[in-house]
Design brief:
This protein is α/β, with parallel strands linked by helices and 382 residues long. It has helices spanning 11-25, 63-66, 105-121, 149-161, 179-192, 219-226, 244-248, 256-263, 267-306, 308-329, 331-336, and strands spanning 30-42, 45-51, 56-61, 78-88, 93-103, 139-144, 166-171, 200-205, 232-236, 251-253, 341-343, 361-366, 369-374. Among the domains are: 11-103, Nucleic acid-binding proteins (OB fold (Dihydrolipoamide Acetyltransferase, E2P)); 108-265, 3-Layer(aba) Sandwich (Rossmann fold), CATH 3.40.50.261. The chain contains eleven helices and 13 strands.
């Protein structure tokens, strides 16, 4: 074996040369997409085996870094990391040191689907469970991070749309492994919501990646939100982002600002509705008063027609008519007009010339006395 032209190393020298090559020829920072196949906590450090199905490499999250992370990976979780290579020369051991880490979108969607299917089976996502939002809420609760741009937008929009609504702010963490903390805040809200007369709850978080919203896919947290005694409206992330909490909520809005727009009425629109209602009420009462007035006049006419005084006057008029008729037909009236009554000696009225004979004695009754006469001639014209 000819070794004259080849470099010669001791084990230490070889390992040192490899380490030197890695430090000079490889990027000091890099992104890595991988799946966790094994994870083990030792002395506060989290050791992982990362794989892509074809190859694997060891990785570590030092305890000082681990305590800053809000996400802890489980086996088979897809992750995206910012890391660097660590090479221990004494053992020629190569490890990826993880500096930053977040779940991959595939992991997020897989967990979302698992929880979604479970809650569907239990009926917690049924459309029939959704309650209507209050029309004009006087008091609402907002769960979001403080301070945040989402909160600023919510308060500004609430003041512009419906300043009569009082907003109670319940600060919560909105990213990472914080489901238990949110649940505790939620329990405190449920305990006191009657005291503050809270009518609806807004859960809000500003924009970010879908991975940042992973806490709102937590099963226990979703159960807590589904059991709220008052309506829940969500405004999480962007319009395309959908979490399990959105599915159990009574109403989902695209953004935090949209949630307030959907919940609170517009004072300009409300003003227009009030004016419309005013005109309708005016027209209704005008019509009602006119109708009642007509009905009153109709009843008054009927009452007058059937009143004792009206009946007496009517009877009096009728009596006067009959009296005038009787007077017109009375013998005295006829006498005044030149008529007379002729009777024979038997006091029978003479009606035609056939009732008398020549030499009959007749009595002629006038208005002021009687005339005794005797018939000398009879001339009948018929």
């Amino acid at each position: 074996m000819d070794t004259a032209s080849l470099p010669s190393y001791s084990v230490q020298e070889l390992n040192h040369a490899i380490g030197h090559l890695l430090s000079r020829g490889f990027s000091p920072r890099f992104y890595l997409h991988a799946t966790v196949s094994k994870s083990q906590l030792k002395n506060g450090h989290l050791w992982l085996t990362l794989t892509d199905g074809h190859a694997s490499i060891s990785a570590v999250i030092w305890a000082s870094t681990l305590k800053k992370f809000t996400y802890r990976p489980n086996d088979q979780d897809g992750i995206e990391i910012l890391g660097k290579l660590n090479f221990w020369e004494n053992r020629a051991n190569l490890v990826v040191q993880i500096i930053e880490m977040r779940p991959s979108i595939s992991t997020v969607l897989r967990k979302f689907e698992v929880v979604r299917k479970l809650l569907i089976q239990e009926g917690l996502i049924d459309e029939s469970r959704r309650r209507p939002l209050p029309n004009y809420p006087r008091n609402i609760a907002v769960l979001t991070s403080v301070p945040s741009s989402a909160l600023a937008d919510i308060l500004r929009t609430a003041k512009e749309r419906w300043p009569l609504t009082k907003v109670f702010i319940f600060p919560i963490p909105v990213q990472g492994d914080v489901a238990s903390k949110i649940t505790n805040v939620l329990a405190n809200l449920v305990k006191h919501y009657r005291h503050f007369s809270i009518e609806a709850i807004v859960l809000a978080r500003g924009g970010g990646s879908r991975e940042d919203l992973m806490v709102f896919d937590n099963e226990e947290l979703c159960r807590s939100f589904s059991s709220l005694p008052i309506p829940l409206i969500t405004g999480l992330g962007h319009e395309d982002d959908l979490t399990v909490v959105d599915l159990v909520a009574d109403h989902r809005s695209a953004t935090p600002t949209a949630a307030i727009v959907d919940l609170l009425p517009s004072r300009e629109i409300a003003k227009g509705h009030c004016l419309q209602m005013r005109h309708r009420l005016k027209d209704y009462f005008t019509w009602t008063i006119r109708k009642e007035k007509d009905l009153f006049n109709e009843r008054l006419i009927k009452w007058k027609a059937s009143s004792p005084l009206t009946l007496i006057n009517r009877f009096k008029e009728n009596l006067d008519k009959r009296s005038r008729l009787l007077l017109a037909l009375s013998p005295e009236s006829l006498f005044k007009r030149g008529f007379c009554i002729v009777t024979n000696q038997s006091s029978n009225a003479i009606r035609n010339c056939n009732d008398v004979e020549v030499a009959d004695k007749l009595t002629i009754q006038l208005i002021d006395g009687y005339i005794e006469s005797s018939v000398e001639n009879i001339h009948c014209v018929r």
